[in-house]
Design a protein that fits this description.
Blueprint: E1 15-19, H1 24-35, E2 39-44, H2 53-56, E3 64-67, H3 73-83, E4 87-90, H4 97-102, H5 104-123, E5 130-134, H6 160-179, E6 187-192, E7 230-232, H7 243-254, H8 257-272, H9 278-285
Parallel strand pairs: 1-2, 1-4, 2-3, 4-5, 5-6, 6-7
Helix pairs in contact: 3-5, 5-6, 7-8
Length: 294
């Protein structure tokens, strides 16, 4: 594994707390930060699949792992204060669009109140200086535009998952304005990402998979100087490809044409909502890493 364009010395001995560390993205992030010398703590439910990345990577023995539910504020707050991190990544979520239809209460309670609980816990954790809240490109009101969505477009969500993440953005914004002033030492930002390959997510709309996580590799800055309150990540225009290219490539690799037929509808729906803010994406892409799997 090779990580380019990242100041690895910044993470040496840095205490980092990750919610959702047992998930696919959280497991990779935990591994990378651990390899960079960070002291990593995690708070999440037990892995939901067998096998899973958390177990395969033996993260139980590489970090401080706490099994817990973000919907339980006392336990979350206690874990956060006991670990005393400087940086927090919030990835814990109910991330599956289809499950949102069958379990809307769980989706809203986990994605909205789970985030509210974390923000409330951060208020009582004096060690924290920076927090990154991960949402999704599905937060926008779907207008069926030909262009990608931009961070200033109206929030919406025609289904429970997208709506829950739009509510998450509103909750973060409310806490930021109500409790974290420009003079406060805690910086909080949200990032909106596309679909990710792995875990229960079937296909990807963004290239370089989870490389966007390392855009926060720059040292946290106070908002009075420079701070990204909302940033979107996705492929550059030259790296974008039609849905059919991805679907056909997968069917070729898997030897099953039904894959292409089944995946086109999923990819097309996601592609229509995959918004990219060009100036922000350009600035962030220079700090993102490239995962070399060789």
């Amino acid at each position: 594994m090779q990580i380019n364009g990242l100041d690895s010395t910044f993470w040496k001995n840095r205490r980092v707390f990750i919610t959702g560390h047992t998930g696919f993205i959280g497991s990779w992030l935990s591994l990378w930060l651990s390899d960079l010398g960070a002291e990593v703590g995690g708070y999440a439910l037990s892995p939901t699949t067998q096998p899973n990345m958390f177990d395969v990577l033996d993260l139980e023995n590489r970090m401080c792992s706490i099994i817990g539910d973000v919907r339980k504020l006392p336990q979350l707050s206690a874990a956060l204060n006991e670990f005393a991190p400087e940086i927090v990544f919030h990835l814990a979520a109910q991330p599956i669009v289809s499950k949102g239809y069958s379990a809307p209460v769980e989706t809203f309670s986990t994605n909205v109140m789970g985030t509210v609980n974390l923000l409330q816990a951060i208020r009582s954790a004096p060690s924290i200086r920076s927090a990154l809240i991960v949402t999704t490109d599905k937060v926008y009101e779907n207008q069926e535009w030909d262009r990608g969505y931009r961070k200033n477009d109206a929030l919406g969500g025609h289904e429970p998952y997208g709506a829950s993440k739009a509510c998450t953005e509103l909750a973060v914004n409310a806490f930021r304005h109500s409790y974290f002033s420009d003079d406060d030492p805690i910086s909080i930002a949200t990032i909106r990402t596309g679909n990710i390959i792995g875990g229960d997510t079937p296909l990807a709309t963004c290239s370089r998979t989870v490389a966007w996580l390392y855009a926060i590799g720059a040292k946290p800055q106070r908002r009075s100087r420079i701070f990204w309150r909302t940033v979107e990540f996705g492929p550059s225009e030259k790296d974008s490809a039609p849905v059919s290219v991805v679907a056909n490539e997968m069917s070729t690799l898997w030897g099953d044409r039904t894959v292409a037929r089944q995946s086109r509808a999923v990819l097309l729906h996601a592609a229509r909502q995959c918004g990219i803010n060009e100036p922000d994406h350009f600035r962030c892409s220079r700090q993102c890493c490239v995962l070399d799997s060789r």
